Amino acid sequence: MINKIKWPTLILVFSVLYVQKTFAQAPHKTITNKYWEILNTRTIKKNAEGQYMPYFPPSLMAYNKTKIQLNGYMVPTNVGATHKVFLLSVLPVMQCQFCGTGDIPEMVEVYMSTPIKFNTKPINLEGTLIINDLDNDTATFKLANAVVID
After folding, report:
1. Which of 3, 20, 36, 43 qualifies as a FRET site for 102, CA 20 to 30 Å off?
2. CA nearest 136: which of 50, 46, 49, 53?
3. What's the CATH number where 100 sits?
């Protein structure tokens, strides 16, 4: 039986099993800070016309157009080694956003001042928070003129 199985097939099967085992055991760390907690206060409410719309509490709107610091994982929106626009998430890109318990985590659309290289490790950014409470066709939260901080 083993003689009939080609070696490349065996190597592929063992590689897939090894990767599955590695990722299954690799714990992910959900990132949080006071700004992520504030962003998560956005909820959905039914308006007078019966439509469900985002609701931004006054404590959240107080941060609109102010400088904040966010840390998180890059989620590219385009192919490339460097990115000027991407999403920032509390979970790594290799972690399924729909797995586990709870909601899909909040993400922020980032607009960097200068492009940065893709990285799988958490990054720390500072930029101007823009809360999009009018346009449903774009991201709810944006971080404009972002720069990497240490």
Report:
1. 20
2. 53
3. 2.40.50
What is the signed CA dihedral for 60, 64, 68, 74, rounded to 10 degrees? 90
What are the tens digits of pLDDT across the range 20-64? 444 444 555 678 889 999 999 999 899 899 988 889 999 999 999
Please return the burial class of 111, using the count of CB atoms within 10 Å of its CB with bins 0-12, 13-18 and 19+. Answer: middle
Spatial CA neighbour of 93 closest among 109, 80, 77, 116: 77
Domain contains 22: no
Cα angle 66, 69, 74; round to 5:
120
Query: Phi and psi of 95, rounded to 5°?
Result: -90, 125
User: For the chain, how many structural domains are there in total?
Assistant: 1
Are 98 and 56 in contact, with CB atoms under 8 Å apart? no
- The answer to whether 107 and 139 are in contact (CB under 8 A) is yes
Structural domain contains residue 19 = no
| Secondary structure E strands in 12-122 | 43-46, 52-55, 67-76, 82-89, 107-117
